[in-house]
């Protein structure tokens, strides 16, 4: 309601606003609205109130309640902005030096928002697009990946000059993306534009360009440009595992403890049945005592004098709380349990509230494999709960050994893990209803069995979260999810608890990390 100078009011301009008021000042209708919109309180006694205000020509202020359409706009915006704001990137060079305001780089993201029952009128979902700067037009390139995030890139001209770029690779061999021929890493070539795709000869490169790569090159190039921001530079151990056995040997943990699932040397042993020698020291492969988390609670972690779950922002904070040296590689295995904990306490509002109230959360964990040999790492979740709430993790998948199916692992007093062998859509009827469903490194586009599981997820209407190792897998996953009638409610974002160790695909150089990206859906 003001002009360029904030002290000058502009008459007859309405302002839609959200303010925070004491509960004693609120009308009953506002209380109901806050509950239905799932709006978060500020502290213990401040609650959001939505109204419309205007300044009259005489300088007086007038207030009114919002219309239903205005309320729907505010609701959709507030739910969407809470999902996408982590994607904003600060532009340190973008603003004048004299202002304290933060400038952000250009940004656009679309998410699906589900209306609460009070607002639903036949259309339960609305697509909300948030862009920055406001009013700026974006040219969207539609690719075969059907990614919801418009990626800006320059499409190569029809007449292409191919460049033979030698791949700097530590791996002994790669595979040509066109003919799948094995080629020595030092002899392989990659696309000179995106530098993402590996070939054996320029002939295969040109053929692949004509057949499929031309439409994807720009997208791959954009993904390669984000490699720098995905690298976790805080760690002091080698974070590239082109040859897993050699990487493990360099750390002195090859064929030891839980690390046996990080290479193929024990692939003959069924998941969940690795021989276990002794205690926690042996499980962590003989690392020094100060290099792995002990089976001990976190100290001095009280909020307002009350014990409550520890909310973590990323690896740096976790390592600091556990007093772990940044030379310790345990993040590579802890990525699985801490990603689960991150989903429960940061991405899923319902499970976060249940845990904060000291209640139990039931989680269906789909497609477990090596995780079944990492129960000592999953016990860390119980310490992060910090004395409040309980979690029942039910791991369901065809890789669960027959002799372990139906067993319960009480890894702590607050976390227990049940193992169930079978396909989720066939076993779910016999399981307690979940609050949330999780599948890590799931490769949704590679297994046909996901179809029935996704149909069931849609039918029961429970929030589900998935992680994928690379952005291209996420783009493919979104196609699969939308094809199943599910709606993306948490956009693809880098997972703060992804493994810092880069994976190496034999035919591409795309950034790939275990649990690298997370996305969420609802029916």
Largest beta sheet: strand ordering: 15-16-14-13-17-18-20-19
Strand content: 15-25%
Kindly identify the CATH topology of the largest domain: Rossmann fold
- What about the largest sheet? 8 strands, mixed
Morphology: globular
> Helix content range of the residues, please?
25-40%
Oligomer: single chain
Contiguous runs where pLDDT drops below 50 for at least 5 residues = 137-161
Count of the separate structural domains: 4
Please count the helical segments. Answer: 14
Output the radius of gyration.
26 Å
Briefly, what CATH class of the largest domain? Alpha Beta
Nearest-integer average pLDDT: 83
The N- and C-terminal alpha carbons lie at a distance of: 40 Å
Secondary-structure-based class equals alpha+beta
Total count of strands: 20
CATH architecture of the largest domain: 3-Layer(aba) Sandwich
